Amino acid sequence: MQIAANSVVLFHYTLTNAAGEQLDSSAGQEPLGYLHGAGNIIPGLENALAGKSVGDKLNVTVAPEEAYGTIKDELIQEVDRANFEGIDEIEPGMQFMAQTPWGQQPVTVVKVEGDVITLDGNHPLAGETLTFDVEVVEVRAASEEELSHGHVHGDGGHHH
Ligand code: ZN
Question: Taking the model in full, what pTM does it have?
Fold first, then answer.
C-alpha cells in the first residue's frame, strides 16, 4: 500500500539541522503517526512521503518555507516586566503562553534587560533548514473516526 490521501502512516525519523546537529529522533521510542493529507506534519515532509510504502527509507532536506516557516520580525516584541505579574524570575529560554492577535501562542523569552523583556513568538525551528532521515514502518487506511477527527488514533496517535 502506497501513502496517499487518507493513509495512516507510522514512521521512524531522525531530525538534524543544517549544522548537522541532531534535534530529535524517534529511535528507541514509538514511531510517529500521522494522517496523510491532513496537515499533521510539515508540508515538505508530507510531500516527500507521498507514494512511499512500508520499508522505504528516505532522506529529505526541507527549506524553512516548507517546514516551520521563516523568522517573522513582527513576532519579536519588547514588553514591560509589569506584564509578568506574579513571576519573580524571568530568564532567557523561558516559555509562556501569550495572548496575541492570532490567539494564544507560545512565546520564548530571548532577552532580559532591566524591565524590558524581549519575547519571540516564532516557532523554535522557524528559519531552519531541516533534514529528516525517515523509515516508513506502517501504512494503513484511516478509519471513519480518524478521518472525521483529522488525526491518528491508537498506536502512534492519540485518543480523544
Ligand atoms: Zn481524535
Answer: 0.81
